[in-house]
Structure formats: structure tokens, C-alpha cells
Amino acid sequence: MELRIAILFLFLYYIRPQDWIPGMEGFNIVRPLIVSWAVILYAAKRRSPVTGWVKTPHDWAMLAYWGWIVWSAPEPKDALLGFFPLVIFYAFTVHSLTSWEAVFSYLKAWNWMLVGIALLAAGSFINIDLTGAAAMTLSQKGRLAIGTWMHNNPNALGHSLAVVLPLSYLLYFWRGNSFGRWVLFPLQNALVIFCIYQTQSKGSFLVSAALMLLIFIIGRPLPVKIFVLALAVTMGVSALSFLPRMSDMNNLRSEEGVQGRLMAWEIAKTAMEKKPAGWKQFEAYINWRGQVEKKSTHSSYVQIGGDLGVNGLYLFTLVLWTAFRSTAQIQYKGSNEAIQERCRRAALVLIVAYAVSSWMINREYHTEYFLLVGVAAAMHRLQLGRQGQVALQEPEFGIKPQREWLVSEGTVPGPLLVQPWRLLTADTALVVESQSRILATPHSASTNVDDSVSAAEEAGLETTAIKAWNRLNWQDYAMGACLTWVVLYIWEYTLKNL
Fold first, then answer.
1. Which partner for 306 in 44, 117, 136, 268 could form a disulfide, CB atoms 3.0-4.6 Å apart?
2. Chosen domain end from 194, 210, 243
3. Which are the contacts of 210, defined by CB distance < 8 A and separation ≥ 6?
4. pTM of the predicted model as reported, rounded to 2 decimal places
5. Domain termination residue (choose one: 243, 263, 280)
């Protein structure tokens, strides 16, 4: 039941019937939904395999981010209460996805919500205009938009729909059935490509191309990677130049929109270095042709810099890093291997798409950020939990954290190895196994790692303790600092060269 509520929340967030159905405008439908969600989670029979609210690196990073927002706010109480619902959305999502099947269903629902947005947008071309998209498109000089709070401008609509291209490939084409491969995948992509084209959003064109490029590079043999990259550099770049408004990319300095955006970036940079405005407080006013105008930064990173300063930007990227790291390091074996790998890749697509699009649109405090991190955290808990296969030993407070896993229920054929590129250091390995198979004790026999290891040793098999990353460590703090430096470098480079 909790999964259904989580999917219903996705529907209200993306489709937003409260924005366009008569009688629902102004009605706060989310509040009663959250109350119902909380009651259902409290009474749920099936819970997250790792119970508790602050148990993973994602939880700690999110808590630190919230703490800094409250600390740096001009009105701490407003920031405390304003950010609280976003944390609730994150936490409830984590505890609603209690199995790999639930994660897979949730990601499919996410994909369908985005397809639903495309249907609302495309409907305006055949006089099925539920949201007032035709009038909104006319106000945007012919660039497609729909009449909802989140997608009432072409750039936002294009960036949301860009995710569907790789997401539907992973969920329906790759390792999917015949109906998904030859019916759902082509229809969804044709609809979404049509809508993205109609938005005429340069940023969404670039993000769509980059995401599809990743799909055909990650996990492929080296010759395939070289071929795909060569094809992208030659034919891909040429094809992009024929898309609407892409010819302007050759002379961005002369484009008025870019000039105004850069002026806002300069003001945000000054605010970040001298005195950040506080959560949701930064506003850029530029002098344009003798008139003072309010100008959006059109960048989540820049907006956070102006709002929360370098420290806030660091914590924002640290949360994204924890989501990326935990998802990239997931390893598994078993009957659900295909579903787990599709979930892992789909979650990575969502994270990368959000990180890239955040340079071009303002979604720094949107619920989307908290939901995608929630999905990554839920998958991490599933990896940590036993679920009938893993014995989990919780470390004492104050002791250097170390998780030891041992496969129970039967044997595991073949070694479970982590690819070297996924490991930062040796002690972050998720799975290390000897050449021999591990014979484990039945699930009901013992939950003590030492007992399980002893049973395997008595059987004459080699055993190796398996350490799992489950606390923020110096590598994470260093990576957060590196990512923050990259953001600041790109910011500074853009201002100097454009």
C-alpha cells in the first residue's frame, strides 16, 4: 500500500491535476496525502530491511544539508519548517521501497508520469488541451509548454522529457519483453522526441544527446565505446546543428537571454563570496537597457551559491555524490539480477540527468531532487539488508564502522567481483569472495556473522569478510570538495569566456 501512495505522490508532483482541473485549484491535496502516507508506513507489515531514519550516508548528508540551511537562514524557523516537507518526501520514499520489485515498479511509474506530461503537451496539437498548453505555447513564441506550475516554460518541459529517452530504453527495451521492446519503447520515444523538438530548448537537446550517449557507452566493450564516441563527435554534432535554435550556439555572446543570465551569475557569485542571501532569498536584478529587471539564474548550482554560499553548494553536491556512489557500487547475485541491474542503471540516469540539467534550469529545491536521492537510499538499504540472504552486523557507536555480509541460503556460484573502476579504496569493496564458493548457514539458523563464518570454515571452505560502505568517510568529503571545485570552475570559466 505504501508503494501505491508513493506512486500517487509522483502523479500529483508531475501531472499536477490540482493546477488544471476546475475545483482543485488552490486545494492543498498533498497535505492529506502525507498524513495518509505516514499512517500507512506506521502500520506497514513489510518494512525497510534497514530500519531507522538516520542509518545511511544519504541520511546523514541530507541531515547536514538541512542543518546548514537552517543555520544560514535569516529566519531559521521559516527555513526549518519550509525544508521539513522535502525531508519527509525523501524519508517516506526510502521506507516505501522495501523490495527490488517495488523499486522497479516505482521507476516504471516515474517513466510513465513523464510520458503523461508528454501526452498533455501533445494533446494541445489535436485540440485535447487539458492544461491550457496552446495559450501557454503562444505566450512562449511558439515553443511548447503546458499550463502547470512545473512545466509552464519550454526549457523545464524539455529537460523533464529528456530523461524518458534513456529511461524507457532501460526499463522496456534492454532485457525487456517483446511488447516493451517493439511497442512501448518506440511509441514513448516517438512521442517524447516530438515534444522535445517542439520545445526548441537547446539545453534539452544537449542533455538528451548526452544521456543517450551514456547508454551506449557504459558497460560496452572498448571498441564499441570508441565507435560510438567517434560517431557522436562527427555525425552527432552535425545532426544537432539542424535542430531549432541550435545555430545560435555558434554566437552565444550576442544572444540577449544568455547575456542577462550571465549578469545574474555574476551577481550570484558576488553574493556567494560576500554574503549569501539565505534559503530561497537570492534574487538577481540587472540593469538592462536602462531598466532594472529581475533575472533568473537558470541554474540550480548558481542559485544555491547565491542562497547558501560555498558550504551550501558543497552539501548539495555531497548529497548527490552519496546517491551516485551507492548506486554505482551496487552488486548482487540471484533470481532478481536483471531487475536489480535495470534499477541501478535507471537510477544512475536520473541522477546524471538531474546533475547536468541543473546547469540550465532552476530545480535546486524541487521535490525531484529528494525523490531521486530517496530511490538511491532505498536501493542502498536493500543492498545492506539481509532479506533472507545477508547477515547484517550493526557497529557500536563510536567504533569505526564496518559492515560484514555473508550470503546465507545456499551457495553462490562463481566469484562476486566489483569492477575496479567502482572502488575508491580497497575497504569500500562491496563484494570480495575467494575462489571457493561460500557455504552459508540457513537464514533461520543464525544472524551472527561470526557463527556463519565459522560454519563455512568447518565445511572446509575459504571465507572472506565483506565490507560495505555505509558511513561518510574522508573519500566522500574529498569528493564533495572536488565536485564543488568543478562547479565553481565551470561557473568562473563561463563568466570569463562568454
1. 268
2. 243
3. 356
4. 0.82
5. 243
